[in-house]
Amino acid sequence: MACISVSNNLIAVTAKYSSIFLRLSDQKFNLVEAGPNRPSRFSGYNRELDVASSAISPCGKWFAYSINNKRLSVWDIDDWQLVGDFTITGWFSIVLPYVVNNPRRHDYSYYREITLVVSKKIPRGARKICFTADGESVIVADKSGEVLSFNLDSSKEEGTFLLGHVSILLDMILTPDNFIITCDRDEKIRVSHYPNSYNIQTYCLGHEEFVTSINLFSASAKIILSSSGDGTIRFWNYLTGAELSVYNCSDDVQPDTEKPIPVTKLQLTQFDSTLQIACVSLHKHNEVLVYHIANSLNVILSQRVPLLKPPLCILLTGEKDLWTLENKGVQVYSLDRGRKSFIASSNNKFKTALEILNKHIAAFSPSIEESGDISVLYKRAYDEVQDYLERKSTRISEGSSDSDDDGPS
Q1: Mean per-residue pLDDT, 43-53
Q2: Checking DSSP bridges between strand 232-237 and strand 223-228, what pairing results, if any?
Q3: Which residue has the higher pLDDT, 136 or 200?
Q4: What are the residue ranges of helices labelled H in 22-179?
Q5: Extended strands (E) in 156-261
Q6: What is the reported pTM?
Q7: Residue that wins the pLDDT comparison between 25 and 400
């Protein structure tokens, strides 16, 4: 899936095999693409799960991203220095740094490749990236189900293995009380101690389809909020694994449907001491649903933010801005604190940056457009009994036909 990361000084969009990130202070941006020698399986759409992830460190200094070339890169946002590049194969990236007003911006011979400072291996494409609270390590969850830790200051070639699932990992968070919480395609949420992740605290079980997002709802009350392909969001006590409450978002857009609409992304932000605001996107649905959630876990649908296209990613920042990524660009909405609802942002800093960013997103729009498909996450159902009965009926029919042919004329 395509993703977007935002800090006070950076806007970044990362998709299947491209990433573009823009620094707000001077409107300078970098475009990174999988190299021209990338494997032929990148040309055209296939049924594999697209992997694209990015994250900004809590201090705002580091930006990490990974695209489908199985490469994890870490940048210094202040000076664009590539401080870490972790790769597994000989595939490479073309890095195109330039200032927007550069008159030679379309002359690719002008750009130089960024010098590789560190090279380390990751086993699979990164599905989710996050930084530790101190910003010294990058945690990577890959699509094979493994979670690895990379220390930015270490010369160690391989990442440190933390934990593994037997299914595709879809999201991951670190809590202030040192738990790492992961979710996967097999409806499971696993709560493990960090960094001793072999020590499993509990599992949160109850979703009926793949779990797409995890958010920390209350650190003091030990509550997380998850979303799923079953169309619901669920509250859990992550110390005991107990399910506390369920809300069906699918019913808000298509009630009484036989097959629920998957929740593709869930974002959460604290409004005040008694209220949190959740933003939810649903698969192939042209709006973002905004919910007010009280400390009692009472969920109320408060707003529908209309969009031109279904969002490929949504993001709620600490400044209470809602960012949406569609196949043609990025939009931002600011929270009106009086009405507790989102309106189109009037921030001039964002306006200028988005004009620049959206102009150049078109250069890799096919990469973004292919990132919205989640059908590969559904499990195929097999009716083994029915299949056996059909094969048995076929054998009996063939046997009867052979007997008739061998009988007297």
Answers
A1: 55
A2: antiparallel
A3: 200
A4: none
A5: 160-164, 169-174, 179-184, 188-193, 200-205, 211-218, 223-228, 232-237, 243-248
A6: 0.83
A7: 25
